[in-house]
UniProtKB/TrEMBL annotation:
Substrate binds at residue 276. It holds the Pfam family A_deaminase. This is Adenine deaminase. It catalyses: adenine + H2O + H(+) = hypoxanthine + NH4(+). Catalyzes the hydrolytic deamination of adenine to hypoxanthine. Plays an important role in the purine salvage pathway and in nitrogen catabolism. The keyword RNA-binding does not apply. CDD domains: ADA (cd01320). Its EC number is 3.5.4.2. It is an enzyme of class 3 (hydrolase).
């Protein structure tokens, strides 16, 4: 089944480039940039990948991203991810990047963007993988800071297709970012947002009604609100679900409790994604495979999930 799932043509719609930083590359970049790391070796770092919630993961994720300093680093990071896409027959990808994680450490916006953009272009030409980049605002920071990030991004508007919202969800509702999303949409960008990962269904309502998002990232807690479920089904609003992430971050205690197939059978447009593959134990195929192993996902269900991912693309 793994090989069959791997060969299935699919799109990935929820993946943070900084979350594809494998420990081996993290150590290589630290050496290249002469940065001392708090971990003795790759195995010690990998053994720290045990999380009780989203925040515990984010603390390590932001720490890891500190080794990314030069345009070449961002190129290498993105290129390594695209090679994984090629190996798993991901024919289209819409990755996130978090500019504030880098600009707040003094790395110029254009250094980050140029490295990522060049790799995505090479991915199109050399690997045949189409893509659309999503600029994500960090929700634990202020709306003012998100506005400044949008200002920095506008001169490079052709390099990305959408804006997103990620980082610590609880206590940072979508309503906090209504004005910056209004502005981004008026500048021609599509909007997406993480909502209903750890946060309540109300955050999903806000993301839909206030931020006017076209796709919900995670959204698994929608199942707690029947009226919301009905809306998501009626309007066929896609959910970018990340099964291995949800179990690694204890959103579900075990994969056998995950609700993605229940949602699929109810007519929700759910898709399968890896979120932060270097930290959560696998790329897209591993996520599909876990659904087969623990939830008995059939080939027909896998085909429908893959088709949903192709249908829910924002970019061609
Ligand atoms: N799963 C996740 N939720 C929120 N923010 C993130 N940033 C990277 N991964 C994330
Ligand atoms: Zn995410």
């Amino acid at each position: 089944m793994y090989d069959w799932l791997n060969a299935l043509p699919k799109a990935e719609l929820h993946m943070h480039l900084e979350g594809s930083l494998e420990p081996e590359l993290l150590f290589a970049l630290a050496e290249r940039n002469k940065i001392a790391l708090p971990w003795a070796d790759v195995e010690t770092l990998r053994s720290a990948y045990a999380f009780n919630n989203l925040q515990e993961f984010l603390d390590l994720y932001y720490q890891g991203a500190d080794v990314l300093r030069t345009e070449q680093d961002f190129y290498d990071l993105t290129w390594a991810y695209l090679q994984r896409c090629k190996a798993q027959n991901v024919i289209h990808t819409e990755p996130f990047f978090d500019p504030q994680t880098h600009t707040d450490r003094g790395i110029p916006f254009e250094v980050v963007l140029r490295g990522i953009d060049q790799a995505l272009k090479d991915g199109r030409q050399q690997l045949g993988i189409s893509s659309g980049l999503i600029l994500s605002f960090l929700r634990h920071l202020s709306e003012d800071e998100a506005q400044k990030t949008l200002d920095m991004a506008l001169p490079f508007r052709d390099a990305f297709i959408a804006v997103g919202l990620d980082s610590s969800e609880k206590g940072h509702p979508p309503s906090k970012f209504q004005r910056v999303f209004d502005r981004a949409r008026s500048e021609g960008f599509v909007a997406v947002a993480h909502a209903g990962e750890e946060g309540p269904p109300e955050y999903i309502w806000e993301a839909l009604d206030l931020l006017k998002i076209k796709r919900i990232d995670h959204g698994v807690r929608a199942i707690e609100d029947e009226r919301l479920m009905q809306r998501i089904i009626d309007e066929q609003i896609p959910l970018t679900v990340c099964p291995l992430s949800n179990t690694k971050l204890c959103v579900f205690d075990h994969m056998s409790q995950h609700n993605i197939l229940d949602m699929l059978e109810r007519g929700v447009k759910v898709t399968v994604n890896s979120d932060d593959p270097a930290y959560f134990g696998g790329y897209v195929t591993e996520n599909f495979h876990a659904l087969h192993q623990h939830l008995g996902m059939t080939q027909d269900q896998a085909r429908r999930l893959a088709q949903n991912s192709l249908d829910a693309r924002l970019a061609g």
